[in-house]
Design goal:
Blueprint lengths: L1 E4 L2 E3 L5 E7 L8 E7 L6 E6 L6 E3 L7 E6 L4 E6 L8 E8 L14 E2 L3 E5 L2
Parallel strand pairs: 2-11
Antiparallel strand pairs: 1-3, 3-8, 4-5, 4-9, 5-6, 7-8, 9-10, 9-11
């Protein structure tokens, strides 16, 4: 089961670190992605880390502010979010799957999903 946590309320310009852990799967065997969703809008791609050191990828809106990383010993993937903006407010989800490079940003390419964690950026 994928478990995402670390969300909360933060002021603009602040930072949060989200964590994604799995009790049943070895995450280094999978591509892990972070997505976010605001209300009824479509879930959008934020960042991805390909398996076996295959590289990291970011949405243009977060490039330079967010960093995705892995701790294989802890079977956990992190999303470090800096310089947060009000428009980053959303429910953030982590997902895992055997995802080809061309489909990294595609919600349907990921087989396993966590439950989501709320991030609110507001003064």
């Amino acid at each position: 089961q994928l478990q995402a946590c670390g969300g909360g309320l933060v002021q603009p310009g602040g930072s949060l670190r989200l964590s994604c852990a799995d009790s049943g799967r070895t995450l280094y065997r999978y591509t892990v992605g972070w997505f976010r969703q605001v209300s009824a809008k479509e879930r959008e791609f934020v960042a991805a880390s390909r398996r076996s050191g295959g590289g990291t990828y970011y949405a243009d809106a977060v490039k330079g502010r967010f960093t995705i990383s892995r701790d294989n010993a802890k079977n956990t993937v992190y999303l470090q979010m800096n310089s947060l903006k009000p428009e980053d407010t959303a429910v953030y989800y982590c997902a895992a799957g055997e995802v080809i490079l061309s489909a990294l940003r595609d919600v349907d390419a990921y087989r396993y999903w966590g439950q989501g964690t709320q991030v609110t950026v507001s003064s």
